[in-house]
Amino acid sequence: MASTTSSHPLPSGCGIFTTIPDLLFIPEFVFGGLVWTLVASTKVLVENPQGWVMFVSIFCFVVTTLWFIIFISGMNQKGAFWPTLDVAYHATATALYLSASVAQAYVTIQLKDIALIPRKYYHEDIAAVVMAYAVTLLYAVHTIFSAIRWKSC
């Protein structure tokens, strides 16, 4: 006799607001968007790796939005490969954001001693560093919990 209950490990619809790794989508959006806007509002100098930070923040924001839509719509219920993709995406996003966070911190340290840069830009860079590391932590936690869920499949 076939069971009528779904045993799929990934939630769909409003169920994503009840599981710990998927609940992290919201702060990933918020802090990722803050990184994007803070870096966009700062002064860009020659030999500045903030282009990489912008790429990572926009890329992860767009892909996380698509991932969120896939989970809300329930498309993640078709196929057994989704838990693996979930872990792979969040691990990749963690690595990308870690590299972007280090680059942003490097730029901020270099701007500290430049007298031509208004303090406003320096403070925005500090905020961008803090937000970038916060997003890195969120993606890392999401990766860990997604990996635990993946291993239990």
From TrEMBL:
The UniProt record lists the keyword DNA-binding: no
Alphabetized UniProt keyword annotations: Lipoprotein, Membrane, Transmembrane, Transmembrane helix
GO molecular function: structural constituent of myelin sheath
Regions that span the bilayer: 20-40, 52-75, 87-107, 128-148
Subcellular localization: Membrane
Membrane topology: Multi-pass membrane protein
Domain MARVEL positions: 16-151
GO terms under cellular component: membrane
One GO term (biological process): myelination
Family designation: Belongs to the MAL family.
Protein name per UniProt: Myelin and lymphocyte protein
Species of origin: Megalops atlanticus
